[in-house]
Amino acid sequence: MAPDLIKVEIIERQTVKPSSPTPHPLRTLQLSVLDQMLPSHVYFPTLLFYPANNNITGSGGGATSTDTAAMRMKERDYFQHLIQSLAKTLTHFYPLAGRLSKGHDIVQCTDDGAEFVTARVKCSLSQIFEHPDPDMLTGLVPATGQPDGDGDGDATTLPLLAVQANLFECGGMAIGLNFSHRVVDGTTSSALISCWAKTALDDGHDDQAPFMVPKFDAASYFPPLDFLNSSQPSPPKLVDIKYITKRFVFDASKIATLQSHLASALAPHAPTRVLVVSALIWKCAMEASSKASNIPLGSRPSSFKMAMDLRRRFEPPFPQNLGGNVVANLVVVATPSLLKGQEESDDETIDLKDLVAKLRKGLEQQKETYPTKLPFDSIKAWQWDQECQKLTGNADMYRLCPGSWCRFPFYEANFGWGKPAWVSIPSIGLKDLVILIDKRDGKGIEAMLSVSEEIMEHFESNPELLKYASVNPRVM
């Protein structure tokens, strides 16, 4: 479906505050050094789609004025239930109802509230699902994180969580969320979605905490650094290059075939599905970049940067309900020596087995050397992050930044009208970024790749990629 065929009508914007005031001892949250190393302007979106259940709209034919009035009343009740359950959820996730301090190293948890937008969409879910365009989906998520359009502005005035409830003509619903990455990572954001859904489903009758209640005390484990407070990274400026996002779907059977093909290179341990899909995308992106820029494939390095969840890396492991950003960056560089001989190759391809073996080896070596003992060495962690930036700072280097949202329980989020039919990510608009997320079966993977138009033209026509992936197939 083309982006210009979807029309979103905003009904109302309001602020949702926690249903109970945040206790005074919790009203100032010191961010950890891991939070400090993330830009304050970056937000990450999530979309959950629910098919019609006829609880709100009828069959869609021959509605009278009385029917329309009744439907509008049901809409209000529907949205109000989401708002009330979100307010209860925010009592547990109170930092997301706060605002960043001037130095962006503290969250003032004074219950300023999350933004809540209600909207109607002038199409049906089936139209969205036919050929979902990631750029089109951006209208279903509330815009935030860019105060004045060019990346500048006062981040202290922005909500740290924004939600948009979209009602389709067919009665289907899409819930779009935008989280401040400065305050939470994927684990914490998925916990909020699960908690909110459970609260809405139980209708507030459960006196117990509805889900894994987070503890926002990461700064006690990962001490902040004072000198980082005044050296916030500047938001990236928009450049005169058009980056587009496209969706690539890897079915479980194709991933299994790819894993089997690469098993010998990764013996004795079987390669994970995330690793093999990431490696294939990196390989094809390098080849596409080489063709788009007319630079021989083996003549320049390429970097692969991904996040590692630290909760299970420590001894003893941290609990999964440790809130905030509990992640570290890992970077593997494919040097010209790794791509040996490619400058002399006529077809300019990379040996995938060799690439994926060295990728896994590089990731495992970094996992072993990253500080994972208490007391945590914040200076060493900061130096690690600086080294990662240095490794990827070469202007001649091709960079790919993958992120995996696989294994997060998004498809279990039942707000009272069943589980999602589809969970996705709209276009984020960041250069050379790929986000992996589970298919509904929990075995396949959907990849949202954002690259320049020139690179995408070569990437999406790569024969090896097309052996394992479908380009933007129908959702259902």
UniProtKB/TrEMBL annotation:
GO molecular function term, any single one: acyltransferase activity
Keyword Acyltransferase on entry: yes
Keywords annotated in UniProt: Acyltransferase, Transferase
Coiled-coil regions listed: none
Keyword Cell membrane tagged: no
A family per Pfam: Transferase
Family, as annotated: Belongs to the plant acyltransferase family.
Protein name (record): HXXXD-type acyl-transferase family protein
